[in-house]
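Case study B.
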Amino acid sequence: MFDLEERIAAWRKSMAAALGDKADAIDELESHLREELHRLALAGRPAAEAWDIALERLGPPRRVAEEFGKLESAGPLRWIAAWLVFGVYACTGIGLIVMAVPVLRRGGALEALLSFHVLTVSMGYFAVLAIGALAIWSFGFRLVRGWDEQAISRLQWWGQRFSWAGLLLTAIGVVTGAFWAKASWGSFWHWDARELGGAAVIGWNAFALWRLCRSGSAGASAWVLGVTGNMVVWGAGLGPFLLETGLHGYGRTESLASAFGIFMGIHALLLALVVSKSGAVRPAAPSR
Amino acid sequence: MQLTKDLVAASAAPLVLSLLEDGDSYGYAIIQNVRELSDGEIEWTDGMLYPVLHRLEAQKLIAATWRTSESGRKRKYYALTRRGQKALAEQKNQWLFVHGMLSKLWES
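Model:
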């Protein structure tokens, strides 16, 4: 005697074994199965025959699970490189907080404000460097392994999140810095190189967010953004130190100038490589 | 005529988004609609549609809710989101562009 509920229970068991803890997906597939059985019954098919037809149309559990598996592997959270970068970023943040705590404890309000400003600006800048690291990683991989739409989507997904962090933290840092400057130097804004650098990083983040949030994958633009982001942050962070004058001109040293030049030189070369090779990595779409 | 596997796979997302543009629907009905539209030429293995739906949901192009139909059957309904509408507009442009290009080539 054919017992539909018994068959469905057995089928659910085999689907659960293949799909794992995707109860929602199994419920949905069961709903589909019941619809199909109902239609076949209305068409006059005997229950056992309808069951076999419906199951065949649905596909074997292992095959369905494979398709769902592809979906998972495409997920942005499966990108190990991004987790590594995120781990380094989080550790840096924790380290900076640990360093800032004694200052916050012993210092007055002004010193606390300055510590908070340094912490937020640093983490904002590091967020942009994280995007740069991921973009360079992604470009290197795609150069070797060829175009992969899902990999670019992952870069966009992580890029968006780091950009938000970069935008918000840098903005908070610039604002708190402005209040500190007002209390210490008498004015919120001095058109100083470091202040302009902070504004440039905010502008870069806003542009990157706009670009990365546009639907559709744009590998070349994500790569270019990553490399230029590194340059903007390096310029904003180290650039003012190289100036002889200005509120943040703390004294130029040769080693600092060399580090600045080497970093910028490497990134200029990387930028040229990205611009020249991105077309080769991704087959060019016909222009309208 | 049988469409190649690649073409069927590539057209799955725009087909689903286009069908949902006309109103909310659920997996089984979407498959039936595609069968009717293609006069049976596109034969999706039923279980293959659901990963596509879940991918579109993860991309926030469609949103899902469980509802009970008048017949008492539970169904997971999908609706096009605003982001989905934008993606569909882009897909339309791209498919029409390719269609136009191939038409020009084959008519000449």
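The first helix of chain A runs from residue 4 to 19. The remaining cases will be described in the next quarterly update.
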